[in-house]
Design a protein that fits this description.
There is one protein chain. By secondary structure, the protein is an all-alpha fold. The chain starts with 11 loop residues before the first helix and ends with a helix.
């Protein structure tokens, strides 16, 4: 179906994503989070339209305690930009979120570089060795 002005109606998933994009600031605050939680199932199958929206979705999911959705949106929408590396670090997302990610190598390299010197990285790896081991096993 095409409207007289040439536009095409949005399906449910696209509509939910558009509502989130237009009102993310409001949907992520206090009592309005319930509306975000109601939109979330419809957005999980949607294409993430930009890095900015990806970051907003990941932050909103973390804020409501939905780690699985946060990881899913990160996997679908993140690229190898510094913005995504900062998001990964700022929200303490596990490195296993990089499993099967198309930019896994570049993101992991940038994350490791952000950790500092070789000794800093080794200390972090020792502290988080189980997650790193899992990531390495899953990447093979």
């Amino acid at each position: 179906r095409v409207y007289s002005d040439g536009t095409v109606p949005l399906d449910r998933d696209q509509f939910a994503m558009r509502v989130f994009q237009e009102h993310s600031e409001v949907l992520c605050e206090g009592k309005q989070r319930a509306w975000f939680e109601r939109l979330l199932p419809h957005m999980s199958n949607s294409r993430v339209p930009s890095i900015e929206v990806c970051c907003q979705l990941v932050r909103a999911c973390v804020a409501i305690g939905d780690a699985d959705s946060a990881h899913g949106f990160f996997r679908k929408g993140a690229d190898d930009s510094d913005t995504c590396v900062e998001l990964l670090a700022a929200l303490s997302l596990p490195l296993t979120v990089l499993k099967d990610h198309q930019h896994r190598g570049a993101l992991l390299r940038k994350v490791l570089q952000s950790w500092g010197t070789s000794s800093d990285i080794l200390a972090s790896l020792v502290q988080d060795r189980n997650r790193v081991r899992t990531l390495l096993q899953e990447s093979q």
